[in-house]
Predict the 3D structure of the following.
Amino acid sequence: MTGHDERDTTTDADRIDDGDNAGDVHEPHPGVPTLGRDEQPSIFVPDDGEPEVADGGDERSAATDGGVKSATGGSDSAELDPTTYDPVDVFPGGDLDLRDGADSCYKCTSCDTSCPVAAVDDEFPGPKFQGPEQWRLKRKDDHDIDASITSCSNCMRCDDACPSSVPLSQMHNEARGQFVERQMEKLSREYVRNRILSNYRFFASIASKVPRLANFATNLPGAMWLAEKTLGVTGEREFPPFATQTFRSWWRERGGAQVENPDKRVAYFHGCYSNYNTPEVGKAMVRVFEHFGYEVLVPPQKCSGTPMFANGMLKDARRHAETNVEELVAAIGEGADIIASCTSCSMSLRQEYPELFDIHGIEDVSNHTFEALEYLRIYEDLEGALADSELDEERAFAYHAPCHARNQGLERQAVETFRDVDGVVIEDVGDSCSGISGTYGWKKEKYETSMKIGEEMFEHMEHAEGDVGMTECPTCAMQMEHGTGYEIEHPLQLLADALPIDA
Amino acid sequence: MAIDSDVLVVGGGLAGITAAVAAAREGVDVRLVSYKASTLRQASGLIDALGYLPPTEPAKPLRDGPPTAGRGIDPDEWDDPEGPLADPFAAIDRLPEEHPYRILGADALRDGLALFDDLVGDAYLGSHTDRNALLPTFGGSVKPTARYPRAAAAGLASDDASTLIVGFRSLTEYDARTFADRLAAAGVPFPVAGAEVEFAEAFQTDAKITRFAGALDLNQPIDGTPAREALAKAVAPHLHDIVDADGGVERVDRIGFPSFLGDEHADEVRSELADRLGADVFEIPMGPPSLPGLRLEDRLYKALDAEGVRFETGNPVVGIETNDAGLVDHVLVDRKGREIPYSADAFVVATGGLVGKGLDSDRTGVREPAFDLHVPQPTNRYEWFVDDVFGEQPYARFGVRPNDRGQPLDADGEVQYENVFAAGSVVGGADVAREKSASGVSLATGVTAGTEAAAAIERATEPAQ
């Protein structure tokens, strides 16, 4: 297969369908809106080392979305008209065009100050270098990507800090993808380990077939030691237990949705963790949304891609994204909005998908995705519903807002929802990062950095009144538990308890 | 619709926070939305009110004809600003008529400063007097300022205590010896010397200021020595660096550091250094991003929480919808692709100026993009500036023009929307960079906009009761 063929979207789609969705392909559904733009080559184009083909025509030119428009509309120009000529077009096609974004950086260094890794590791050059500066370097000659990109934890705080809307995390994702694709030794322990960590779903799906055995195996004395020695996965952490029944299996067993309502539908993107590890979060989501009269759809789905972006495994992420977009677009066609209970999943569908991939309907998926609590706070009178609520016994929580919730404007949603509920004490433990950032804190060489970043949060949690933690992010929850020993809940669980729902 | 509040404040800087607290204290329900992390983290942490009076008339009549900028032909000439001013309040009457202080009155500035004093408690000083304090700033100049952080207090330039300015080789933008020379040249009443010490060398060359602050905050070991002790040891050999004209040496009374002496435990860091060195220790505000700004941001957002204000950061306001009565009914917030209406009875626009992107400009004009409020400006863009870089630049005073209740006026001088109020740099009329008045304008306009927004609701609901 040549590089040129890969950029041909029809063959690309055929090739990439790895067969595990065979027979599950959606025909255009009656009532499905004509979604998205016309199919274009992906923004991330896997590079198999084939030379660039110069005569590829329109299809090969760079897509310029992600909130960044070139002066001429870039690739959308039908031809190179001298009057609309823009230097953007001289760059090789296929790569992400972030020139406008890089030009917007006036080096105020706010991103560096917001970076939790740079605050504890002075060898990390920070987001300003990783993003706009490295991007410019690469435009001049094809410099290698600096290996320090693997120390970026993908918390995306720099996006929020930038007063100039430079698409920093998009630049980091692209750089990391290129680094892994072109510079990382594919047989190295690091690559293999990262591939395993980022494809958590694959391994979890096997383990959850035999959850007790899997839990027994990971808890065997020496199991984590072995993982550290052979794979470079830190031996300091305990592997999260697999649920004895996955969310999807519970969902099938209960006979799917108990509420039918063509006017109020949501499609639940449960993600891997609440399917395999914490189905109680998914069950709470269903109870709460059915309480408000929503028909819950649970479309087939794969990993949101978050751990893959963070490890530069963009090919894997794209493959999963194609399934997700196809299934979620079908659900949107049935009138549903997409609801996630993990803020990294919602962040990925909303921001990283349209920034990194150009898949038919991907913008629609982005525009229809919400976090669960966010959705209820917009479309339901949640405060009214909770006004008369009272918990059986008083409970106090130390709440941590995940970085990926912060970037969606959701950093206060749990505190604001619950602070007036009788019997609930909830305290925000501050704006520091938990430090685990998904797979980051699982890596042997990153474990110490991860715990240093988390130190402030641990300290604040211990000072908070509550001795139960709360967060929307499953890996933040792991870190909170690891650092304090607290039990951690998801806001949906408390909401399900606080609302007058018949058990 | 669930996203509803009495007052919605758009913008999370000093003006927005002030407006939100002022409104909340009137007993109404307030929500604040901010597109990006607060601009306070780019701020020096000094709260200026009015430091200089720049001339508004050129020294000789402005040249007619095409622009000559950059070509050195017959440039426009302007006198130096008057100042530093001892008393900001006494000078308000001499500001241009369209200046927010003139429109809102000196009491608005007093109210704004009083609210600020209340929110920051003992972390700031300066409220005991109307008069400006003079503080050394990054670069070696002295800035007139109304309030200053406790961390900077020992550095007052009006004090005659001998001073050592400490810098680090790896901190390239901060040259302590040049800094000290400039202070001396500015005629400060104290002997001053600069010294470059070997402390930050233990870190990578491009380590971030948050890394230094974190190491000192947690007293982490630097090559085996706890950070605070290591820093004191590095500075100790320079305690006698001040040499007078006769070759006599003097032990320094106080030591100024770049402002990264800790974050959460900054008071502890300063006092330990002072104990170890036997001299007062102070911080000198640096360019952005700055620890004093970050600390102020933390403090003010905690205050917002304590006042019961709801707030969120990360999504922009992209438009408004009006109702039949010509009032703004709701704004549209772009939540990653979906425009969600946020309704309120009154709105405060505190989105920032040209730098903060609350004002947008291109070759055809200058606009306020969120509410499309009127921004007065010359139609010919060559009249937006003058050729003298340090002259009276018309663009510096661009912004919406409010009435004395903080309501933006349209092109005819009428209130544009009865339920919209403006605060901070989006308000025009002040040349905050030359006047050294940015914080004071934010506080004065913020407190006015917040109080008036709350009052507007009460007025609107009274007949119904």
Q: What stands out?
A: Chain B has a mean pLDDT of 92. The first strand of chain B starts at residue 4 and ends at 10.
